[in-house]
Amino acid sequence: MAKRIEVKDLDIYYDKFLAVQGVSMTIQPRSVTALIGPSGCGKSTFLRTLNRMHELVPNARVEGSIVMDDDDLYAPSVDPVNVRRQIGMVFQRANPFPTMSIYDNVAAGLKLNNRRLKKSEMDDLVERSLKSANLWEEVKDRLQKPGSGLSGGQQQRLCIARAVAVQPEVLLMDEPCSALDPISTQAIEDLMLELKANYTIVIVTHNMQQAARVSDTTGFFNLQGVGKPGELVEIDETTKIFSTPSQKATEDYISGRFG
Ligand SMILES: Nc1ncnc2c1ncn2[C@@H]1O[C@H](COP(=O)(O)OP(=O)(O)OP(=O)(O)O)[C@@H](O)[C@H]1O
């Protein structure tokens, strides 16, 4: 578990539109990497290339390479479905399967991956996943109730439990707290700090305080200009980015002068 990702010279297209250009970065295991930057600069697009979800958009493609430990994620022999199993994703809006029970929501990922488990094994795994998402105590007496009956923050933790259940190596989170109140946000942030002991975590966030609180490394994306592609301006230790960034554009952004 917890793998290192090496991105090299990545260009990301939607059909003929070059959305993001020339990204190179190393994402360290057992750490949280935050991606920040103004709207439309390609943070979410970049995030989705890390588990090959970008290709689900018709005619979307990448050039360049993404290697996880020694595996080239874009090698012709690689099945994108398998990449998505190893690199889980949590979205902005919690999206539990609405008619499914809490239990089945967590078990769903495993069933989709065709893992056949005995009932007792499945029970154990559901419990472990809910525990690692800090949700077990709140739901253990109502596992058969619908997931949609939980609060927004609980639903987001349910989605994290579902992502964790398939034992991925990496967790991608696209603004996981943007629809949550401050208390639920804090629960998710605490959870990220716990999960990074076992996972590589990459989070897109608009909230710079959040990036400063939860991440070890921060990457700042920006547009190269109006109508131009997005780019990675710099990536460094979070404390450095928020105190003495090396690029003026980063300093302007974090000090609120634009974006
Ligand atoms: N499905 C799509 N088809 C075509 N273009 C897209 C698609 N999704 C995003 N784009 C374009 O790619 C660029 C980057 O968008 P993206 O959503 O990745 O930016 P972002 O930095 O995550 O923005 P935000 O912070 O507002 O979520 C934008 O110009 C956007 O319009």
Characterization of this structure:
There is one protein chain. With 259 residues, this protein is an alpha/beta fold. The chain has a domain at 5-95 and 171-254: Rossmann fold. The protein is 34% helix and 25% strand. It is built from ten helices and ten strands. The strands form two sheets. It has a six-stranded mixed beta sheet, sandwiched between helices. The chain has a four-stranded antiparallel beta sheet with strand order 2-1-4-5, with helices on one face. It binds adenosine-5'-triphosphate. Adenosine-5'-triphosphate (ATP) binds next to strand 2 and helix 1. Adenosine-5'-triphosphate (ATP) binds at residues 14, 17, 19, 37, 39-45, 57.
Keywords for this entry:
Rossmann fold, alpha/beta, binds adenosine-5'-triphosphate, single chain, AAA+_ATPase, 10 strands, 4-stranded antiparallel β-sheet, 259 residues, 6-stranded mixed β-sheet
